[in-house]
Amino acid sequence: MKKNITYFEKYGAVNTDKVLNLAKERFLDLNLKHVVLASSFGDTAVKALKYFSSNELCVVSSRYGYRNPGMHSLNEDNLDILKKSGVKIVFQTHVFSGIDIAISNLYGGISFAQHTSNILKMIGHGFKVCVEIAIMAADSGCIPVNQEIISIGGNVRGADTALVVLPVHSNRLLDMQIKEIVCMPRVRRAIS
Fold it and tell me: Does residue 1 belong to any structural domain of this protein?
């Protein structure tokens, strides 16, 4: 089997439309049923509605309190559009930065989850996000774990990476199968 991978010269939102287009092509080629998309503020999720139907799309956002106590980070106008479209929306703790961060901040050191996150970021930040949101969506029941999906993520804002994955629940992390890289940036932001 021979497949093409698209590599971008820059990371971030500049690639969003191209990522959504490439993801849609692969979605149709493989006759997939589910797309998981990371969206912190909702801009990318609203844009994705031009490419995927609301019953195909699961939007994964940060948990309540991620940026401000007791609040989600989605823009209210975007949230309204997404809700009216019927898109499934997941607000959940990031798999690779849950309570581990609080304990590491207090006592020092690095957890297994943080270590795994940093290993995945070596490939790319969006790559790590794609793996993470597939697990978050599976854990919330938004997608099945026995079907390949498209997972779309990025770096800060917008999308720059798309993968075909066979998702798993968080307790089965090492059973996840990353089937294909659809697209990703050749460069990534520096890890601090």
Answer: no
Residue 162 phi/psi, 5-degree rounding, is: -140, 135
Q: Tell me the two tokens of residue 62.
A: 């940060």
Q: Which domain holds residue 109?
A: 6-185
What CATH number has the domain bearing residue 109? 3.40.1380.20
Q: Tell me if 190 is assigned to some domain.
A: no
Lowest mean pLDDT, pick from 8-22, 28-42, 142-156, 177-191? 177-191
Helix spans in the chain (H): 16-29, 43-48, 76-85, 99-107, 112-123, 125-139
Residue 13 lies inside a defined structural domain of this protein: yes
**Tokens standing for residue 162:** 């798309």
The rounded distance, in Å, linking the Cα atoms of 133 and 60 is: 6
* Domain count for the chain: 1
The sheet with strand 161-166 has its strands ordered as 6-8, 177-185, 161-166, 149-153, 35-38, 57-62, 88-92
At 68-83, the pLDDT tens digits run: 888 788 899 999 999 9
> pTM score, two decimals?
0.92
